[in-house]
Design goal:
This protein is mostly helical. The protein contains seven helices and no strands.
Length: about 160
């Protein structure tokens, strides 16, 4: 965790957001840091041919996107209940980047292929029911996000 993360309540590792400590000035640095962390992890996982199991792929992938989801969820909630001009500006500044990240992720063929390989692997049946469900849900989300569409249709 860097200095920005240590002092930014949107990047706290706890389950509960300290909403009373969140300032509009925390939003962009938190989202930038969470996006960078997620993108770095995803790039590393895509480049690693050995990242093909629950522990080597799913856990780090889910952890990297969870931090972004947690921070963005808090920002979205605050935007809905404490709409100030400063918070609205910070939210609107981050919204396109967050939307682009999640949309790109949902259509990422390489990640979709990794999840399909995990599902097809002999060890899949040995995973707990909850872990199999995570993989099944990820595959469903990739399909619904358009991962199987031809490239021309993805853009649409």
């Amino acid at each position: 965790m860097n200095d920005t993360s240590a002092s930014n309540p949107l990047l706290d590792d706890g389950d509960l957001v300290r909403y009373d400590a969140v300032l509009p000035s925390h939003v962009e640095p938190a989202i930038d840091a969470a996006l960078a962390e997620a993108e770095e992890t995803i790039a590393r996982l895509q480049a690693d041919p050995d990242a093909n199991s629950w522990s080597s792929f799913v856990e780090p992938f889910e952890a990297s996107t969870e931090r972004l989801g947690h921070a963005w969820s808090a920002v979205s909630h605050l935007s809905a209940v404490v709409d100030t001009p400063e918070l609205r500006a910070a939210y609107n500044a981050c919204l396109p980047r967050v939307t682009e990240f999640w949309t790109g992720l949902s259509q990422n063929q390489a990640l979709f292929d990794r999840y399909r390989a995990i599902e097809a692997a002999p060890g899949f049946v040995g995973l707990t029911a909850s872990r199999r469900r995570v993989v099944d849900n990820a595959l469903r989300d990739f399909r619904l996000g358009g991962a199987e569409l031809p490239a021309a249709e993805k853009a649409r």
